[in-house]
Amino acid sequence: MNGWMGTILRVDLSSGVIKREALDPDLAFNYVGGRGLATKILYDELDIECDPLSPENMLIFANGPATLALGLSSGRSMVVTKSPLTGTICSSNAGGYFPAAFKTAGYDLIIFTGRSDHPVYLHINDDKAVLRDASDLWGLEAEETDLTILKKVNPKQRRETKTACIGPAGENLVRFAGIVHDGHRLAARSGVGAVMGSKNLKAVAIRGTGGVRVANAEELLRATLIADHIKTTDLGIAFEEFGTPLFVDVLNAVNAMPTKNFQYGFFEDGDLINGAEMYDRTLVRSKACYGCPLNCGRNTRLADDAKYQGRGDGPEYETLYSLGSNLLNGDIEAVTKMNYICNQMGMDAIDTGVTLGTIMELQEIGHLSEAEIGFPITWGDAEASIRLLKMIANAEGFGIEAGKGGRYLAEKYNAPEVFMGSKGQGFAAYHPRAMVGQGLLFATSPEGGNHTTGNTIQQEMNGIPTPMDPLTAEGKPQLVIKNQNETAFIESMGVCIFPYMFLENGLEAFTELYNAIIGAELTEEDTFRMGERIFNLERMFNYRLGFTRKDDTLPKRLTETPHPEGVAEGNVVPLEQMLDEYYQLRGWTIDGIPTQEKLETLEIV
Amino acid sequence: MQVRLKLSGLLREYYQHRPYPREEKVDLTNGSTVADLFDQYEIPYDRVHILIVNRHHADLGTSLKEGDEVWALPLAAGG
Fold this sequence. Notes:
CATH topology of the domain at 217-425 in chain A: Aldehyde Ferredoxin Oxidoreductase Protein, subunit A, domain 2
Radius of gyration of chain B: 12 Å
Oligomer: heterodimer
Structural class of chain A: alpha+beta
Number of helices of chain B: 1
Shape of chain B: globular
Radius of gyration of chain A: 22 Å
CATH superfamily of the domain at 217-425 in chain A: Aldehyde Ferredoxin Oxidoreductase Protein, subunit A, domain 2
Number of strands of chain B: 5
């Protein structure tokens, strides 16, 4: 099977039994890999009504056929499960070097079920897979977990062994805990780390020495030249120099940088937390995931004589919003320190920031008292934010409640409108009043406020390939459907979505790559349809749990309160108008339910 | 008259001072346009993808007045 290792590892943590089974080639082809394939397995096997934090939930680590195959940023894997934050299907994606090790060891998927009666980690050394006691690892932060495991490994095999682990946040079932690759890089979103913690699974450590067979190596190498081309453009150079923090200025300039819990779209102190500021003050070096030429990662350090100290990765643009502008925090060192804590505790920086923003606003409007939190936490207060952040990760005091997320808190304190998210997941760093297509994306994403399931920035903000008004509904349902379907295909392949977003016709490039890897002659229409199949399957997973149009919502702040300033002044998100057209174009009912005819067309049974 | 110029991303190489400032104050003759300002700074027009004057979209022909903030940004994509 070109592109595939051909083996699924099934680990029942309740009994400790580990089994291997052959990958079904038809299933793998029809659902592409990663997110798509794992969703199909959950759709068929999971007791869908289960509590996401119960032993019945399944946690799937999934590669795609392109993972490891070089060419266009192919060092990604996904974690797919039922989310404890949203109650929906979710897929959380990360890179680093863990995905490549996972695949070289010979596995396409690792499926965890049950719950161990004591902390364990799964140690894989090529075809040997063993559950080991992790009692001494429990409570450790991410990098310490990584290093402690590596010390237990034969020194000759240490460099090739890569880990994915949870930190204290995952152990304490924080609903937005993530899974940390290589001690620093997170599959952050939707609470996948809490599911891992609920299973008493501290880490997966993998060493592999194999390779993957591809159908057409020459074509595959040709695809890498596209990446070389990206690197020589202004955008590619800027991406290496500034990373995603480059976008602070862009989003701020067009008033789409969420500020003060989405009350505003412009942050006065944006200049203090942008890519240039990081380049000049905190950047040590840019770094890349396995098989990627783009080097967008930020390895940073805070000076020994600075107010906050440390070293690590980040922040990315998303974090500069969530822990920066969203909280009126214009101190780059404070944002960086908070990011380090999130990484080491194993916590999604986006939902951490959204939760803190919810708390600050609840306190400001008098719904949440200082006494309940234990101390005042006002806008821009980095010290109080850091204190609360640690309380959340360690499940101390008010942190236990805060660890249930922004939606929970906003409802508990009778102000549900102050939670800035959809389906319980906080929004990513794009203010929908200034780019309404992104609002439709957030509302219809299978797991709520997620920007990686079809980001519209290239079209809405950059006007590529053709200029588009970001403030009106015109063309947005078509755009969001296009991006969602294409992204579902591309992400499921096991590649990063950045090159796709940089190319004028990303689907064409990735269809060629996919063909070269698996040895097919698919057209863009074929791969678009494969992405559509995955997206509809996710929709059906959620529909079986009762999710319909009533759940495809945005807060009233976005749909009723006019944008106060700048290029988007006076604008709101025309969500209902866009949804009507979106459902119709999708072939769904007016309530957002895929029709039988649509399911048959897509061969979803 | 004097205006404030902000250059983002790689465009900051066109600032006249080092180390790079966050903005520069620029003296212009009355009646100058954005194009005049870019010419004075030798900024290639095609490297400017988003142009903002006083928080609103503008173009090369936009006339400037005392105290205006001109913000030029290169192409970028999302993350």
